[in-house]
Write a structure and sequence with these properties.
By secondary structure, the protein is mainly alpha-helical. The chain is built from nine helices and two strands. Helix 6 crosses helix 7, helix 6 crosses helix 9 and helix 7 packs across helix 9.
Length: 172
Amino acid sequence: MHNPEEQDDRTRGTGDARHIFVNDALAPNRTMEDRMYGDVGHHIKEVNLEATLDHLVAEDKNLMDMDRASAGDEIRRMMSYLDLDQKEATQFVHILNEGISNAKPDEWAKESRTRMNRVYGSQATKRLNETEKVVQRNWKLNAFIRDHGLANHPDLVELIARKAPLINKRYG
């Protein structure tokens, strides 16, 4: 049962980690003793369940919309930092969508090395170091890439590697 001393609100957390405490929502006027030890059965009889549940769904949708909006803002900031044009921005969003839902980090690392060697030849290691520097310099980009397991995504590595010298020069 939900401990009211931990959280007075009906919802806690954001995104996938959000929890809704239905007992508190359906029986909001319980005493502290009822909250700790009581049965909500008699309180629920007094509540219009459909209206309450509709309210919870609407509240949850609002929180999800806020989560999406803030995530969109973060992605726009990352794209601005990387100085992406429209085509590159579209590619970046595609990489994020595909990569987050279809992570294959072991395969990606090998493919990334192959592509870098093919494009940059003997300068591949230097370009990879520049690419890593770009990611390390922006902690939000770094955290996002690490959290979602995208560090070795070949398309992302290639995209950032193309931009790395200019970004490092700009922020160097």
